[in-house]
Design a protein that fits this description.
Elements (H helix, E strand, L loop, with lengths): L14 E3 L6 E3 L1 E4 L10 H13 L4 E3 L10 H14 L7 E6 L14 H15 L4 E6 L8 H13 L3 E7 L3 H14 L3 E5 L13 H8 L2 E4 L35 H16 L4 H10 L6 E4 L4 H8 L9 H10 L9 H4 L3
Parallel strand pairs: 3-4, 3-10, 4-5, 5-6, 6-7, 7-8, 8-9, 9-10
Antiparallel strand pairs: 1-2
Helix pairs in contact: 3-4, 4-5, 5-6, 7-10
Length: 342
């Protein structure tokens, strides 16, 4: 059966303006970092994407290396677009990124103009798109001049391959430098995508205030700490969970201290009649400087649980104070090297 999007899809979700731009994003956006690659069940991913759009999620976030294998998430997304979402292209915000290892040799990673422009060309081909809405520099390159990296972002906008550009995991200082360069070129920076959760609060130490001052949106990824801020790990590490598969969620992240804090946070959520994941998302979105929280979803049920967070009551001052006693640096920031480069 051909996909026919729900008629009431825009009545179900709030949309927040992205900095001082003209673009609004849904309060919760869907990322395809996990669960949409070549080794995942295609029809399950299709059902998740359809359900997301039916509930008002208009922003789908990818990167060149999402999979595994790298590139397969974009390839699958291209199939979803062709089968289901082509009539709705103008209602969607589609983003992709480049910065991590993608192909062999000296031009397949980091932040050179050669790599970034070539990568976006490849991404567009995989997804069957004429343009993306947002193209990001995925990480700071310590060896390439920032002027070259930002110049590449300006170039792809002028070529019509991207409508907006953004940066990910840049420190406050690097953000200021990048924004100044982009402004001088006439292509403003739309958005910053940092990791942010109750176990990784680094952006509160200067980045959020910098983005507010500069009028740049903020979309928080890993808001559930790769699933740590769910009920899955309350009693340790279950067999077959993501933490046992040798991916980016390291078993070493699930220390006794972190698990104890997750249990305390879960108690706060339980008293609110919410799942821990729902409370974690509301906590990220409590700050009006956050444009959107980026989630992943393995199933339609997981997606619905996350989106249902928005129906819950706002966190009270007492609840926020209690959360602060347990929420802090859990040593889980995989992107610290990029965001700490000055």
């Amino acid at each position: 059966m051909p996909y026919d999007a729900a008629a009431d899809r825009y009545e179900r979700l709030d949309y927040r303006r992205c900095g001082r731009s003209g673009l609004k994003l849904p309060a919760i956006s869907l990322g395809l970092w996990q669960n949409f690659g070549g080794g995942d069940v295609f029809e399950t991913g299709r059902a998740v994407l359809q359900r997301a759009f039916d509930r008002g999620v208009t922003h789908f976030d990818l990167a060149n290396n999402y999979g595994p294998p790298p590139g397969s998430a974009e390839e699958n997304f291209g199939r979803y677009m062709a089968a289901d979402f082509k009539p709705y292209r103008d209602e969607l915000v589609i983003s992709t990124k480049a910065g991590y290892d993608m192909w062999p040799g000296p031009y397949g990673s980091w932040g050179s103009r050669k790599y970034l422009v070539s990568s976006l060309d490849q991404s567009l081909k995989r997804m069957g798109l004429d343009y993306v809405d947002i193209f990001y520099s995925h990480r700071v390159d310590p060896d390439t001049p920032l002027e070259e990296t930002m110049g590449a972002l300006d170039q792809v906008v002028r070529q019509g391959k991207a409508l907006y550009v953004g940066i990910s995991s840049y420190s406050p200082e690097k953000t200021r430098q990048a924004v100044a360069i982009l402004n001088s070129l006439g292509t403003p920076c739309l958005i910053h995508q940092p990791s942010y959760s109750m176990l990784n609060r680094w952006i509160e130490d200067g980045l959020l205030s910098t983005l507010e001052e500069l009028g740049i949106g903020c979309i928080a990824f890993s808001a559930l700490a790769q699933g740590m801020l769910t009920s899955k790990y309350l009693n340790g590490i279950p067999e077959g969970s993501r933490a046992t598969r040798g991916g980016p969620l390291k078993q070493g992240f699930l220390t006794e201290d972190n698990i104890a804090r997750i249990r305390e946070l879960n108690e706060v959520a339980r008293r609110r009649n919410q799942s821990l994941a729902q409370m974690a998302l509301l906590w990220v979105l409590r700050d009006p400087r956050i444009t959107s929280a980026l989630i992943g979803a393995r199933t339609v049920e997981q997606l619905d649980d996350s989106l249902d967070a928005l129906a819950g009551p706002a966190l009270s001052a007492e609840e926020l104070s209690e959360i602060d006693r347990h929420a802090g640096d859990g040593g889980i920031d995989l992107w610290r090297a990029s965001s700490s480069r000055q």
